[in-house]
Design goal:
It is a single chain. With 149 residues, the chain is α+β, with helices and mostly antiparallel strands. The protein is 19% helix and 7% strand. The chain is built from two helices and three strands; from the N terminus they run H-H-E-E-E. Strands 1-2-3 form a three-stranded antiparallel beta sheet, with no helix packed on it.
Amino acid sequence: MVYQIDDATAVASLPALPTDNIGTPGFFTGGSTSGGAPTRVRYWWLNMVQEELRNIVLAADLTPDKTNNAQVLAAITSLIASGAGLGKSQGGNGYQILPGGTILQWGVALSGTGGVASVQFPIAFPNQCLGLHAGESEADGGWGSGNPT
């Protein structure tokens, strides 16, 4: 469930974060047997968590729904499947940037007499091209006579 709180005490705008340093960043505790106080969960921290989760759902073009407890999973699955955040152009001359930065590129070019053609990749490789595969065919879809690929 990723939904902004709709309690009667909620406010319409996100309150500003406190400017004082309340404590050192750390982890929650339930208190200690020696009398240490449990961690106090503050409104501004809850707002940060709420908005982080809500933004994942909105980035996947889903509508927040307080009856759906699987929205963040659905949003992440959708964003990964769509390649969100990864560059891509899937035209005749296109590319896909994979997680980790590997770039796959492809292109199509027509050659003239002599069978020479030049393909312009859509984006520059940042370091080097690690491999290339070329193929050929005639206009009618048959392989070029005597020209192995």
